[in-house]
Amino acid sequence: MQNLGDFQNIKLDATRPVLEAITLSCERDQRRLFTGLSFQLQTGDMLRIRGPNGSGKSSLLRLLCGMTQPVSGHVDLFGQALVRQRGTLASKLLWIGHAAGVKALLTAEENLAWLGALHMHGANASIEQALFAVGLRGFEDTRCHALSAGQQRRIALARLYLPDLPTLWLLDEPFTALDKAGTKQLEAHLARHCDRGGTVVLTTHHELSQQAYAYKDLDLGQYAA
Ligand SMILES: Nc1ncnc2c1ncn2[C@@H]1O[C@H](COP(=O)(O)OP(=O)(O)OP(=O)(O)O)[C@@H](O)[C@H]1O
To answer: Boundaries of each ABC transporter domain copy (predicted)?
Structure first.
């Protein structure tokens, strides 16, 4: 079994953590990706997870939202073990995966209604406004197989503009396929969310603008064997 490295604790100032990783170790296909990873995130924190392809960024995000289990260690959410909150996770965190996840035969509006269904109910006006916010005005009724990769990504990201969202956002490669304007807009939206007391964890190869937000950095590549 290959050990790709140990982590140091990331010291993030804290009272009651929104999200806490406690000595997490992760394996995939009997291959050790990381060991002893610990950090805490508070309201207002933005954590960027970066590192080379295959270093375990998406795997870490999946641990943090309870989709997979660590080989050792655990994740706490709002001060309680995440595994004991399985039935209520949709109201506590929002995860957007690295694939756009849209259905080709559904329209932009239908896709967003479906993607947002875990967090909101009804409210067509909100769906329309969210699509407008990501620049898809006029594409509401277009089936997604007729949209570009960047436009499909924008549908997935439109979830971040729906009302009554959980405050903790876990985003896997959210900047993929976005143009410069879309990237800038998303950075500003994430910064605004944190300014309002939200918490964001994202994986990306993209260099975030330091001016947009004083984000924390976790470089998995530093720990690769
Ligand atoms: N579905 C899977 N089944 C088994 N192993 C997987 C699976 N997906 C990824 N892996 C392995 O887990 C390791 C980490 O993958 P992961 O997707 O977490 O990396 P990453 O840092 O997000 O990569 P990238 O920058 O390419 O998105 C890789 O070695 C990969 O081969």
So the answer is: 19-225
pTM to 2 decimal places: 0.89
Q: What is the pLDDT of residues 25-40, one digit of tens each?
A: 999 988 889 988 999 9
Q: Are residues 7 and 75 in the same domain?
A: yes
Ligand 1 first shell, C-beta below 6 A:
28-29, 33, 51, 53-59
> Given ligand 1 and candidates 4, 24, 28, which is best to mutate, with the most ligand atoms within 8 Å of its CB?
28
Q: Does residue 109 sit in the same domain as residue 181?
A: no
CA of 63 to the centre of ligand 1 (A): 13
ipTM for the complex shown: 0.95
> SS3 for 77?
strand
Q: What is the DSSP letter of 8?
A: P
Nearest CA-CA partner of 41 in 60, 54, 27: 60
The number of folded domains in the chain is 2
